[in-house]
Amino acid sequence: MLKKINKIKDQFISDLNKVKTIEEAEKLKKSLLGKESELSEILKSLKDSAINDKQAIGIASHELRTFIAATIDEFVARIKKEALDAKLASEKIDVSLTGTLASFGTKHPLNIVVEEITQIFTEIGFDVLNGNDVESDEYCFQKLNLPVGHPARDMQDTFYIDEETVLSTHCTHMTARVLTQMAKDENFEGNYACVAIGNVYRRDDDDATHSHQFMQLDLLCIGKKITFANLKWVLKYMSKRLFGEEVNIRLRPSLFPFTEPSVEVDVSCFKCSGKGCSICKYSGWIEILGSGIINEQVMLLNGMDPEKNTALAFGAGIERIAMLKFGISNIRNLYENNVQFLEQFKFYGE
Questions:
Q1: CA–CA separation, 126 and 193 (whole Å)
Q2: Residues of the chain with pLDDT > 90: what percent?
Q3: b/e map 12-45, b = 16+ CB within 10 Å
Q4: Residue 146: its pLDDT value, please?
Q5: Which CATH superfamily does the domain covering 109-345 fall into?
Q6: Cα separation, 51 vs 252, whole angstroms
Q7: Is 38 a known ligand-binding residue?
Q8: Who's near 345: CB < 8 A, 6+ residues apart?
Q9: Is residue 171 scored above 80 in pLDDT?
Q10: Is the pLDDT confidence value at 236 over 80?
Q11: Which DSSP category does 209 fall into?
């Protein structure tokens, strides 16, 4: 009987090598494991076998049945996989799969403002510079008329990396770098204009309108005959482009270490047209930035001759402009990546 079982196994292996389809494999399986199969007849005849042979024949028969079933199942699985792979290779798009809607992103409100400012000033000949996140104490303070020990440094709430290096507290450090570079340039003809946009860092998160990190715009325009009239025109031009043609500006005397004379700049409330509302705190005006004519001392500290050239400058927070422009009440909304909040700006850039 054992020889007969081994013969069935050898014949199965031989026949399986000739099988090409799943149907043929299933037919072979049935012929070997069915009720009328030769292997079943062997199991039925066990009752007539000698006691010493029953165990060996039973074990061998069971192992052969298991081997045949597992081998054919493996063969069928391989054939199915090959058929699927061939189908996937021939059908680049499976039209039977469930379709999914494409999700389109939106422009971030800060990027919208940065792009608008960039366009506004490049149209009138300004260069656009990227501000540094990390700056030296020299360019961040000393070259801007804030020497070591100056009390105005305390207003910046600066993050120091070491004694000589800080996280930029304002984008005005780019003004110092540009002025210093122009002073060294033998080919500088005395006229240059740029805006610098970058991240700035201060320990300032007391309320919903402040954050320890925000973006800032800093403008510099240097020339032989730059006056306060030029500053007023630039401020008015930018404000009308950002907030609408009906907007007016108001200049209030102020004090900054970088500029002299200096002014705070307000725009007439674009929501209530100056009548008074919650946005402008019922004053009719909204403060947006500080500006002025570059201090003569700053010009000298950066190697420029204030008798030959003068310059105007102003600095504004990108977040503040965005909050006013879009009616955003909490600055943290700009950083939380809330999809529902960001989807409100789909209509921009279309």
A1: 5
A2: 38
A3: beeebeebeeeeebeebbeebeeeebebeebeee
A4: 87
A5: Bira Bifunctional Protein; Domain 2 (3.30.930.10)
A6: 116
A7: no
A8: 106, 107, 108, 109, 112, 326
A9: yes
A10: yes
A11: T
Which CA distances in Å does 281 have to 102, 125, 245, 271, 308? 43, 36, 22, 12, 43
Residues of the chain within CATH 3.30.930.10 domain(s) are 109-345
Q: Which two tokens stand for residue 185?
A: 């340039």
Segment 47-71 mean pLDDT? 74
306 cis-preceded (ω within 30 degrees of 0)? no
Query: Is the whole-model pTM more than 0.85?
Result: no
For 111, residues 6+ apart whose C-beta sits below 8 A from its C-beta are: none
Residue matched to tokens 């402009």: 321
- Which residue(s) pair with 267 in the sheet? 249, 286
User: What separation in angstroms does the CA of 271 have from each of 247, 250, 321?
Assistant: 10, 17, 14
More confident residue, 141 or 50: 141
Please tell me which residue, 51 or 313, carries the higher pLDDT value. Answer: 313
CA distances from 316 to 94, 120, 141, 208 (A): 53, 15, 18, 18
For 333-345, give the DSSP string: GGTS--HHHHGGG
Which pLDDT does position 179 carry in this prediction?
A: 94
